[in-house]
Amino acid sequence: MTLLHISASPREALSHSRKIGQMLVDRLCAETGLEVTRRDLAQTPPPWPDGRFAEASLCPDDQRTKRHRRDLEISESLIAELEAADALVIDSPMHNFTVPATFKAWIDLVVRPNRTFRGTPAGKVGLLADRPVVLVMASGGPVGEAPPAQTDFLTPYLRYVLATIGLRDLSTICLDSLRRGPDAVDRAETAAMARIDGIAAHVRDRLDRQALAAKASAAT
């Protein structure tokens, strides 16, 4: 079984989201034997979707030219990583209340009509099979509903985006107030680490159920 680990922070070794995300990945691998595919959006930023990508993406598959297919190659490789993964861990900072730019580029490359979702009169329908996803999100300021806290647009946005393509099982770990001194960092990281046990148990349970369903399907 495969775990897709996506990291978005440009701060690399200084990143709190990467630190907790890696702890969760290590825990899951130790307990389940998952093989990890890494996608580092900071070290290897995906390209910005351009006009040629938009044209190729919107063109019906049976009308695509060789140029269209070349223009979709990176998108297809990213989608293939998603399709091959049995679980995902995404660690990301909050930038200006939402996802970093490189993460948004990744989203725009994998959320494609008639590839990962289909439009219907009742709304968009995801085309990917559901699987557990964990978001580890870090914020320099406090997150909440009332001042001085800032609104978290990242988590609900990502939840909606993932549900659009069929991924509805999203668990979250939020580290906030990280720019408010060492004590605040210690509190945030301690609270985040306390969440790992429950989330790891949930992911293990989902993986077990997915494996049983796959065996049952193969037997019929």
Automatic annotation (TrEMBL):
Residues 1-196 form the Flavodoxin-like fold domain. It comes from the Bacteria. InterPro entries: Flavodoxin_fold, Flavoprotein-like_sf, FMN-dep_NADH:Q_OxRdtase_AzoR1, NADH:quinone_OxRdtase_FMN_depd. It holds the Pfam family Flavodoxin_2. Binds 1 FMN per subunit. FMN binds at S9, S15, H16, S17. It catalyses: 2 a quinone + NADH + H(+) = 2 a 1,4-benzosemiquinone + NAD(+); N,N-dimethyl-1,4-phenylenediamine + anthranilate + 2 NAD(+) = 2-(4-dimethylaminophenyl)diazenylbenzoate + 2 NADH + 2 H(+). Gene3D superfamilies: 3.40.50.360. Homodimer. Belongs to the azoreductase type 1 family. This is FMN dependent NADH:quinone oxidoreductase. It comes from Roseibium aggregatum. The gene is azoR.
